[in-house]
Each structure stands twice: as C-alpha cells, then as structure tokens.
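Dear colleagues,

I hope this message finds you well. In preparation for our joint manuscript, I am sending the Cupin domain-containing protein (Mucilaginibacter sabulilitoris) sequence together with its predicted structure, so that both groups work from identical material. I would be grateful if you could confirm receipt.
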Amino acid sequence: METKKHFFAGIIAIVAIAAITIPGSALAQQAGIKRTELQRHDLSTPGREAVQVRIDFAPGAAFGKHIHPGEEIIYVLEGVLEYQVEGKPPVILKAGDVLFIPAGTVHAARNTSSADAQELATYVVEKGKPIVVPVK
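The corresponding structure tokens are as follows:
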C-alpha cells in the first residue's frame, strides 16, 4: 500500500511540474490570459536562455503573484496594464510603456480596462527552470 502512495505522489508531482513548465498548460494559461511563446534561444552565458512571449489579457483579467528565475523585460503592445511589483507602488502601463522586473521579484499584473491588452515579455532566465513560478 505504501508503494502505491509513493507512486501516486510521484505522478502528482510530475503533473504539477508539467503544468508549470509546459507552454499552454493549466497554470501557464490562467482564465482570460493567453501566453504564446514566440522564440527561445540559448545565450552566450552558459546555462542562460532568452525567451519571448506574447501575453494577451482579456478585459479585467489578472495574472496573480509570481516570480521568474531571471529578469523580465516588458513592452506593452496595446491596452492598459497595472503591475504590482513587490516593494514598489503599483504602476499603470499603456501601449509603448516598458517595465523591468529583476530576477526573483514577486509581482502581479492585471488588465484594468474594459478592452483587451497585450504585452511582449522577454525573459533572460536559467535554462531548464520554469518560466513562471506562482507565489502564494
């Protein structure tokens, strides 16, 4: 019986890791949020990669608190987004605005308008780690 418990615990752990790391998975695709990976390339710094993702926010959609295993560079393509970055007052970004989020910094984003919003997120991260890590 103990063996079955360990087996199922292992399966649950694998599914949880896959949900965080596989593009298009349940955690990567929150309600009203669509993440589309555009490109991924190894960098000249060993163990690091650059990943570009287009993130579409439906009106009022929010992406909860999370971190990244590296830096995030945000460029708002359309709409209005509010970012809450740990230790700083909330910031409102509109099309053409940019934001830099240091590695491991807790932050959250939401579309504060009644129209769609879209951003281009570029991550410079540790290779092989999940791009998005939810935070409680």
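For the figure legend, we might mention the following. The mean pLDDT is 85. The chain has one helix and ten strands.

With kind regards,
E.M.
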